[in-house]
Amino acid sequence: MTSPARPSVRRIAALLTGTITLVAAATGCGGGPGAGSATDKVTSITALDYYTDEPEHTQWDEMLTACGRAAGVKVEQTSVPAASLIPKVLRQASSRTLPDLLMLDNPDLQQIARTGALTPLDQYGIQPRGYAKGILSAGTYRGKVYGLAPYVSTVALFYNKDMLARAGVAVPRTWGELKTAATKLTRPGRYGMAVDANATFEGTWQFLPFLWSNGGDERRLDTPQAAQALQLWVDLVKSGSMSRSVLNWTQADVHDQFVAGRTAMMINGPWRIPALNTDKDLHWGVAPIPVPRAGQTPVTPLGGEVWTVPQSPSEARRAKAAQVLACLNNSSNMLTLARQHFTVPSRTTVAARHAEQVPTMSVFARSVAAARARTSQLGVRWPKAATGIYTAIQSALTGEQTPAEALKAAQRFATGD
Amino acid sequence: MTDPSPVLRKGTGQDDGVASAGHRGAARSRSGERLAQWMFIAPAAAYLLLFFGYPILRNAVMSFQEYTTTTFYTGSAPFVGLRNYSEVLSSDLFSTTVATTVLFTAGSIVGQFALGLAFALFFQRRFPLGGLLRSLLLLPWLLPLVVSGTTWKWMLDPDTGVVNAALRGLHLSSSGVPWLTGPSQALGSVILVNIWVGIPFNTAILYSGLRNIPAHLYEAAELDGAGPVASFRHITWPLLRPQVGVVLVLGVVYTLKVLDIILVVTGGGPANATDTIATQAYALSFQQFEFGRGAALSNVLLVISLTSALVYLRAVQRARNV
């Protein structure tokens, strides 16, 4: 390396200027995009979602473009992976660069609404009518509706028709039948049943139908009802009809196991249907999640993404965004989107029409009507309870604690501050 | 990082030559020299302050605040004193995560060092393809950790992984080892993966240390009748001490903060069995969005790392003074 004999003042000045520019960049001086003044005519708005997979991404892009055209704006869609959506939204919230239209997973809405970064939809004249109760409660924070979802989903029991037929097993409807069926379907190299018992919110989401259908409640986890539900999962693993690896499986992994013929039944959602349909040799069926006693209705958690209008200085932009949001949620677009994504329209009348047209969806349409939003009881305290629940699942399935002990610890964690 | 001192020395030497005309000139030149010195230090100092000092300070402040998702939008984060620390330190998980962190670090360091030293000694000998093999040994270092972590996860899968398939094939185990699903085995598995990741670093540094030991010492020892064990004990080990210090202390600091491998291979599970202070701090901040508590826990980790770094610096100082 050569060095100048005498430090040139100009060089140092250049270096220092560089440093200052860096500081300015790091502290975020200078205006971001979307800071246009309110008087400008709005020609385009931005939208952020987590629909990164194809064909989902393109289908949403087309829908947003069509709704944008109706509102007279171009919609610029950005999709980020699901796990990075909330961190990105938080960064954007602090730098005041939130998009004009923001999609959120429904259990996250209350958390974000609490920050004050979202606007209530009634100020744009949007009156949600005919929505299923569950999804409306997920989109509501302190009595005001902040987000609306065109479609909702939930989980159900998927089964391999050929495997059930060969083993002479009927589709299980109760927990007892589920245990026997899973045992009968287990062979070397194949398990009877698969769930996602991962140490993430996804694991909690899959356990909720068992907890809720048995009368368990996320507000009080240390109850016999909750322990019985967890005992069911423990029994399935102990009897060898469910792999211990469920501890590490995501819903995508569970799906892969099912497609590979390594499990005869699984808990999963309707968004898997397009992938299941690509395999012509796989004959699958779908049924409601088994309930503790015959004749009960399963209570499942409500899935789906709500669209929101974040705060922004430009009233005109927000108005346009609200127009697009209303368009996404009109009955005909709801039906189109639900058909594309194998989900259930969130207006009950539209859902009924959809179930008539697509019979495989009738199981989900019925479940969704009774489905409960994860944040309906605990609101912004839900993430804490959800963490307690998946930790309890893991402790019980590894045999570290009995279900009752594990859930007692979960309750302590959920209510501790 | 470049050390500015050789540049300065070179510059001042020439400055002195120019300014030797008179006493006054010399004084002016000396103050100019001072300024020049500071200006050379300024970019590095500014860089350190901006990219190391500021985040650490922010993290320290954050650990005394109730910093939640709301803070991001409103900017208000009320000070809560030591509440974050008391909650983090008194939580049910804290003692187990500390124990896991200690086991993980100790296990990884012992394994990495022993195998790294063995490989370094092995490659010191000359044999055909030795150079090629030695460079292949660096492979774990070149792969992104997420890639190698995912591959290990597949290999260790209890049902379908190649490791259990091999064990079953060799009739060493009928049911297979629950590598990722048994609470005690899972910790062993992440330690195993981390050892594999750390071997190249240990081998590379120890190998370069071995190369610096003059060959004539071994020849002399051999003439005196010393066997391989005696020459290792009396020549290799004492002369390798500086490299051993570097490898161990940096190893401890690197291992304490390991996050990616654990997140990819086990995600901290099953049942928190592989949760270390680092993964717990990550979960608090970025999954539960309790940034204040996450900051408090990561400061605990920072203090532990800093202590071992100070031990290292002291050791280096002592070695230099000898």
Question: What does this entry look like structurally?
Answer:
The complex is a heterodimer of chains A (417) and B (322). Chain A is built from 17 helices and 13 strands. Residues 1-38 of chain A have low confidence and may be disordered. In chain A, the strands form 4 sheets. A 5-stranded mixed beta sheet of chain A has the order 2-1-3-12-6. In chain A, strands 9-10-8-11 form a 4-stranded mixed beta sheet. By secondary structure, chain A is of the alpha/beta class. Chain A is globular, with a radius of gyration of 25 Å. Chain A folds into 2 domains: 44-152 and 303-370, 3-Layer(aba) Sandwich (D-Maltodextrin-Binding Protein, domain 2), CATH 3.40.190.10; 156-301 and 378-415, D-Maltodextrin-Binding Protein, domain 2 (3-Layer(aba) Sandwich), CATH 3.40.190. Chain B has 322 residues and is mainly alpha-helical. Chain B folds into 2 domains: 5-62; 84-321, MetI-like fold, CATH 1.10.3720. Chain B has 15 helices and no strands. The longest helix of chain B is centred in the first third of the chain and has 40 residues, at 23-62. The two termini of chain B are 26 Å apart. At the A-B interface, helix 1, helix 3, helix 4, helix 16 and helix 17 of A face helix 1, helix 2 and helix 3 of B.
Q: Secondary-structure blueprint of this entry?
A:
The complex is a heterodimer of chains A (417) and B (322).
Chain A: H1 9-27, E1 44-49, H2 56-71, E2 74-79, H3 82-94, E3 101-105, H4 109-115, H5 133-138, E4 140-141, E5 144-145, E6 147-148, E7 151-152, E8 156-160, H6 161-167, H7 175-185, E9 191-194, H8 201-213, H9 224-238, H10 251-259, E10 263-268, H11 273-278, E11 284-287, E12 305-308, H12 315-328, H13 331-341, E13 344-345, H14 348-357, H15 362-370, H16 382-398, H17 403-415
Parallel strand pairs in A: 1-2, 1-3, 9-10
Antiparallel strand pairs in A: 3-12, 4-5, 6-12, 7-13, 8-10, 8-11
Chain B: H1 5-19, H2 23-62, H3 69-74, H4 83-90, H5 92-124, H6 130-136, H7 139-142, H8 145-155, H9 162-169, H10 183-211, H11 215-223, H12 228-256, H13 260-265, H14 277-286, H15 291-321
Helix pairs in contact in B: 1-2, 4-15, 5-10, 5-12, 10-12, 12-15, 14-15
Pfam families (chain B): BPD_transp_1
Region (Disordered) (chain B): 1-24
Protein name (chain B): Binding-protein-dependent transport systems inner membrane component
